């Protein structure tokens, strides 16, 4: 039975204490954790304006993985979703995410691609960006922060919580100072695997606060072990400024804590920043109804956590990813052995935090070790790059035996700048957003995805000059006398699908 609603939010005694704000992550963590992110733009956008009016500190909306889902699974243009959501949200800034050195896959991207991506997320209307690096590599983070700041974005830098012999109080105190020195607008302690306990929060929040001073301090913890909600209350008492939450239907499980439950508990203690309760309820109603109509699961609180979580430390979605890999090989029965091997591989690789893309690298290597019956008999190229330092420097040393197995760097041919190459090939008619999608995704993955540019829909022989374009339009299967209009920025072109006149006009070109 769900907790009571409006009466639980209103008329709470407010003490003279600092208010803790909430960041709505329903459309980011909620959708990804419980529905694999597979919710179309037409179902996402109607609720954005209501969420925006509720009074949240921010709305956590899209990470690179959502771009992947839009392209590969929904056949939608993620930039269209981003722009529409940013236009709809006038009060609350929207968050997007930057993972250093890679964007939408395991592959490392050149600086030119990363720089263009940052410029385009700013142009889409995002106002805040969460910058993270699975290795806490300071040089990687510095580069990302500088680029985001140059694009006019507010930067929230992430410190990940994980458990290892190297991730001690002293580590977190030192890392907090390092991160604060990079000039972030806010800092987030992020617990992707749900490993935090209330006791650990009471120890760690003051340690990090001492290193970051008055910089706004956020906490995001997932409910994988069922302790995140209690951790939030302790964190609020200990001095964090904001907490990441999701609407009740898309909270719990592998997601983040429930908006309603966290707000209610903060309100009882006089710690909650005001929210519009009717908007909270509207969002709940929307997603409960949507889940029922589309036969989707809703989040359920974890009551009996799997203690193995504290060993393998995989986020909930990564356990499913690993099980899926084994199922494809018809070896799902090997999952317990793979999770056990995962612990060894992670240690050998320097105890990285289990977030994309590093969690996938560790996972694939663990699967190979178990299936092949020998540790590191085969080492994927991405794991080799990781060991050789291409992704950055991990928090702990990499095992010497693994280093020896990988060997020395292999010579690689110098790659041309993909932005310049593709821009030269396609010309100025292709938008920067389309250009990025073409660089980051394969042509077959982009089939059926609506693009911005005229050239995105043309065959190689489609004419591009004005006279030929007129003839092309007139040859379309439309009724005689119909008018076809093409617009791009300040450029417009019209032509009739008959022998009538055509007109080309330019006010200014972007």
Query: Considering DSSP H and I runs of 4 or more, what fraction of the residues is helical?
Result: 40-55%
Helix and strand content put the structural class at: alpha/beta
- In the sheet with the most strands, the strands line up as 1-2-3-4-5-6-7-8
Largest sheet: 8 strands, parallel, barrel
Number of strands: 11
Mean pLDDT, nearest integer? 86
Number of discrete helical segments: 22
- Which term fits the overall shape? globular
The quaternary structure here is single chain
- The low-pLDDT segments are 1-16, 454-482, 485-510
Beta-sheet strand percentage?
Answer: 5-15%
User: In angstroms, what separates the terminal alpha carbons?
Assistant: 55 Å
Radius of gyration: 25 Å
Q: What can you see in these coordinates?
A:
The chain is of the alpha/beta class and 510 residues long. The protein is 45% helix and 12% strand. Strand 7 (217-221), helix 10 (228-238) and strand 8 (242-245) form a beta-alpha-beta unit. Helix 8 packs parallel to helix 9 (198-212) and helix 14 runs parallel beside helix 16 (358-372).
């Amino acid at each position: 039975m769900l907790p009571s609603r409006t009466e639980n939010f209103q008329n709470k005694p407010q003490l003279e204490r600092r208010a803790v704000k909430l960041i709505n992550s329903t459309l980011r963590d909620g959708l990804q954790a419980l529905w694999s992110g597979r919710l179309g733009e037409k179902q996402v956008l109607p609720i954005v304006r209501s969420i925006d009016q509720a009074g949240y500190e921010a709305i956590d909306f899209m990470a690179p993985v959502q771009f992947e889902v839009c392209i590969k699974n929904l056949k939608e243009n993620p930039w269209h979703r981003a722009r529409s959501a940013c236009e709809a949200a006038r009060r609350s800034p929207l968050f997007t995410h930057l993972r250093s050195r890679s964007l939408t896959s395991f592959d490392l991207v050149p600086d030119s691609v990363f720089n263009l991506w940052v410029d385009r997320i700013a142009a889409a209307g995002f106002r805040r960006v969460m910058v993270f690096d699975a290795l806490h590599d300071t040089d990687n983070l510095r580069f990302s922060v500088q680029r985001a700041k140059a694009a006019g974005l507010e930067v929230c830098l992430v410190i990940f919580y994980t458990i290892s012999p190297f991730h001690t109080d002293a580590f977190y105190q030192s890392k907090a100072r390092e991160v604060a020195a990079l000039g972030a607008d806010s800092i987030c302690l992020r617990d992707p695997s749900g490993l935090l306990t209330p006791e650990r929060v009471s120890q760690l929040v003051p340690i990090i606060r001492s290193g970051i001073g008055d910089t706004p301090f956020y906490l995001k913890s997932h409910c994988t072990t069922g302790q995140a909600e209690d951790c939030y209350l302790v964190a609020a008492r200990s001095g964090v400024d904001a907490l990441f939450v999701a609407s009740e239907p898309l909270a719990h499980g592998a997601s983040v804590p429930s908006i309603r439950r966290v707000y209610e508990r903060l309100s009882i203690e006089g710690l909650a920043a005001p929210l519009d309760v009717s908007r909270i309820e509207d969002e709940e109603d929307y997603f409960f109804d949507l889940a029922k109509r589309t036969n989707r699961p809703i989040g359920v609180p974890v009551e009996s956590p799997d203690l193995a979580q504290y060993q393998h430390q995989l986020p909930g979605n990564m356990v499913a990813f690993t099980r899926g890999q084994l199922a494809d090989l018809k070896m799902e029965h090997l999952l317990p052995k793979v999770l056990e091997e995962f612990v060894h591989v992670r240690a050998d690789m320097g105890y990285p935090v289990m977030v994309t893309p590093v969690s996938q690298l560790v996972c694939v290597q663990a699967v190979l070790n178990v299936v092949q019956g020998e540790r590191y008999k085969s080492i994927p190229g991405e794991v080799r790059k990781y060991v050789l330092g291409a992704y950055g420097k991990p928090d702990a040393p990499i095992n010497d035996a693994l280093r020896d197995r990988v060997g020395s760097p292999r010579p690689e041919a110098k790659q041309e700048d993909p932005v310049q190459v593709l821009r030269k090939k396609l010309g100025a008619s292709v938008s920067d957003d389309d250009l990025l999608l073409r660089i980051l995704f394969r042509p077959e993955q982009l089939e059926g995805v609506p693009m911005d540019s005229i050239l995105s829909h043309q065959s190689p022989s489609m004419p591009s000059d004005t006279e030929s374009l007129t003839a092309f339009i007139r040859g379309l299967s439309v009724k005689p006398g119909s008018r076809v209009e093409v617009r791009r920025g300040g450029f417009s072109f019209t032509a009739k699908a008959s022998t009538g006149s055509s007109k080309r006009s330019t006010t200014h070109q972007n």
